[in-house]
């Protein structure tokens, strides 16, 4: 054997051992070290503060300002404030600016002046001028009324009837009225006047008045009218008026019982609720002793006439 072989074998063995030592993973310096266990924490005595309960029973949303519909209104009745700012001519129940339904405080004073009719009339007796005034002032439930109606025919004296009345609301739709009436013209008479004014179901305006005069004179007048809206601006207004007398008064051309019936039909255009021109037709007829007195004086007992007029209110 070669004498160098043992040396080379020793060198190869040393190099192999060194290579294995380099490839081995380094040892963990914390091997064999054990961390002590963390002490357990007892949370059984620790409690979060309770959240106080909130009582919502006293918390309410503010009530709406719009009142619920009145379920007591008759079927088919229309809202009295649906047009003209709630104004209804001739009716104490809904006259501007509030009504007995609670739209105003009863302590507020207000008023209105209504020229309900200012018209020229073409009749059998000639051309005439007719007027009707309806004015009031007061509070929501108590008011003073000035009512005047008259007619002037060319060549004759002015025939007029004027009433000063006090009214008190007796329901949402009716006023009780009382006062005095003065008739002027060919003769002058005064009356004690009592009655009711208001709205019947379905918006018929009603005015019923009992008149008590001198020497046992008495009269009863019933008047009703209705506004039928054909369009928002065009209104057809039928009207009927009946007059009864308690006794015959030949000097005044009045007979006992049903004296006369007056009917009218007017078509008006409301440019605004305060300004409304109109055209119409009227028919009147006398009955009983009243008709007989008129025939004796050479006057017609029935008449149909055309009217052209204007309606204003302030």
CATH topology: Porin
How many strands, what sense, and barrel or not for the largest sheet? 12 strands, antiparallel, barrel
Uncertain segments: 61-71, 73-104
How much β-strand is present in the residues? 35-45%
Highest-level CATH class: Mainly Beta
Q: What do these coordinates show?
A:
- This protein has 314 residues and is mostly beta strands.
- The protein has one domain: Porin (Beta Barrel).
- 9% of the residues lie in helices and 45% in strands.
- The protein contains two helices and 13 strands.
- A twelve-stranded antiparallel barrel has the order 1-2-3-4-5-6-7-8-10-11-12-13.
- It is globular and about 50 Å long.
- The model is unreliable at 61-71 and 73-104 (pLDDT under 50).
Sum this structure up briefly.
With 314 residues, the chain is mostly beta strands.
């Amino acid at each position: 054997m070669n004498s160098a072989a043992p040396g080379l074998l020793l060198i190869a063995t040393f190099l192999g051992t060194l290579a294995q030592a380099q490839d081995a993973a380094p040892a963990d310096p914390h091997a064999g070290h054990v961390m002590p266990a963390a002490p357990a924490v007892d949370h059984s005595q620790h409690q979060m503060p309770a959240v106080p309960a909130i009582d919502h029973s006293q918390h309410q949303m503010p009530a709406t300002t719009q009142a619920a519909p009145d379920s007591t209104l008759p079927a088919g009745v229309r809202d009295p404030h649906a047009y003209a700012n709630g104004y209804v001519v001739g009716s104490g129940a809904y006259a501007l600016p509030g009504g007995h339904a609670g739209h105003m405080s009863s302590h507020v004073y207000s008023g209105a002046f209504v020229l309900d009719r200012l018209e020229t009339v073409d009749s059998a007796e000639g051309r005439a001028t007719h007027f009707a005034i309806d004015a009031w002032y007061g509070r929501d439930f108590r008011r003073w009324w000035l009512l005047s109606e008259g007619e002037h025919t060319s060549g004759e004296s002015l025939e007029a009837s004027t009433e000063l009345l006090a009214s008190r609301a007796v329901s949402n739709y009716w006023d009780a009225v009382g006062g005095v009436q003065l008739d002027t013209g060919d003769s002058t008479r005064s009356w004690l006047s009592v009655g009711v004014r208001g709205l019947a179901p379905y918006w018929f305006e009603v005015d019923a008045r009992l008149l008590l005069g001198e020497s046992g004179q008495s009269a009863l007048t019933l008047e009703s009218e209705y506004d039928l809206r054909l369009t928002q601006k065009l209104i057809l207004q039928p009207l009927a008026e009946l007059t009864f007398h308690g006794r015959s008064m030949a000097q005044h051309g009045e007979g006992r019982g049903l004296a006369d019936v007056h009917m009218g039909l007017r078509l008006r255009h409301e440019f605004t609720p305060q300004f409304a021109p109109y055209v119409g037709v009227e028919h009147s007829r006398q009955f009983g002793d009243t008709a007989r007195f008129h025939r004796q004086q050479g006057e017609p007992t029935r008449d149909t006439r055309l009217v052209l007029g204007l309606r204003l209110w302030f």
